Amino acid sequence: MAVIICERHGRQYCVFAAPRVAELIGASVPPDTKLLPVRLELMGEPGFFWCDEEFIRSFPAGTPPTDWSLESVHVRDEDLAFDIYLKLPPICIKCFEEYLGQNGLRRADIAFADAVKE
Ligand SMILES: [Zn+2]
Q1: Dist. CA 90 → ligand 1 center (Å)
Q2: How far is the CA of 39 from the centre of ligand 1 (A)?
Q3: Cα–Cα dist 20/79, whole Å
Q4: What's the CA-to-centroid distance between 95 and ligand 1, angstroms?
Q5: Distance in Å, CA 23 to ligand 1 centroid
Q6: Of 71, 18, 78, 24, nearest in space to 46 by CA
Q7: How do residues 87-112 score in pLDDT, each as one tens digit?
């Protein structure tokens, strides 16, 4: 797990989110757009993060995520998953958890599991 130095919390583990989501968390601003839980696989390991629709739609034509729905996104293509992962900024886990709590959001892995259950 990677470590980050947070202005508010000092040395902390980090999590990842789409750039827009990281901006919202940094500014403590409630989501102004629909957020989707994303699952991707890197080297056989699943990872989950929150993203905005615009971020997912920004990926090049011809390499769309599969299982695209309005409630969740499952990226099965490993090359695309790696490209996406490289674009995710790290966020202090404490800031992230506070933001989830303040905005009634769950962890992305739990939200993803619920979205695909139906
Ligand atoms: Zn923090």
Answers
A1: 11
A2: 24
A3: 22
A4: 4
A5: 13
A6: 78
A7: 999 999 999 999 999 999 999 999 99
Residue 94's CB is within 10 A of a number of other CB atoms, namely: 15
Q: What predicted TM-score, i.e. pTM, was given to this entire model?
A: 0.86
Average the pLDDT over 68-93 and give the result: 85
Pairing of β 35-42 and β 73-75: parallel
One-letter amino acid for residue 70 of the chain:
L
CA dist list (Å): 6 to 3, 21, 79, 90: 9, 17, 31, 11
* Residue 60 CA to ligand 1 centre (angstroms): 33
The residues, any chain, with a CB within 8 Å of residue 59's CB and separated by 6 or more, are 65, 80, 83, 84
* CA–CA distance, 34 with 20 (Å, rounded to integer): 11
For residues 100 and 107, what is the distance between their CA atoms, to the nearest angstrom?
A: 7
